[in-house]
Design brief:
The radius of gyration is 12 Å and the shape is globular. The chain has helices spanning about 1-15, 20-30, 35-45, 50-60, 65-79. Helix 1 (about 1-15) packs antiparallel against helix 2, helix 3 packs antiparallel against helix 4 and helix 4 (about 50-60) runs antiparallel to helix 5 (about 65-79). It is built from 5 helices and no strands. The termini are far apart. With about 80 residues, the protein is an all-alpha fold.
């Protein structure tokens, strides 16, 4: 999961530095990951909130005790 987290961070770095096309490509790639948490982050990054919510729900079911999943899922609602 550390490699995926680095990729999410890379996507966010593109986004925060105004490189929107690179960010979109990066986040779109995350939506094809096997991990629902990573897919959720990808969908969120390309503003597909319904899909992101569905993937966060799946991730929460798989990782019942993961505070990271729940915190990120909660941040989705703030966004």
């Amino acid at each position: 999961m550390h490699a995926a987290a680095a990729t999410v961070n890379e996507c966010r770095a593109f986004q925060h530095t105004g490189r929107s096309s690179e960010a979109r490509i990066c986040f779109t790639a995350l939506t094809r990951d096997s991990d629902p948490f990573t897919r959720a982050e990808g969908y969120w990054g390309i503003d597909q909130y319904f899909e992101a919510n569905t993937e966060f729900r799946s991730a929460a079911k798989l990782q019942l005790k993961s505070p990271m999943v729940r915190v990120e899922w909660g941040r989705l609602y703030v966004d």
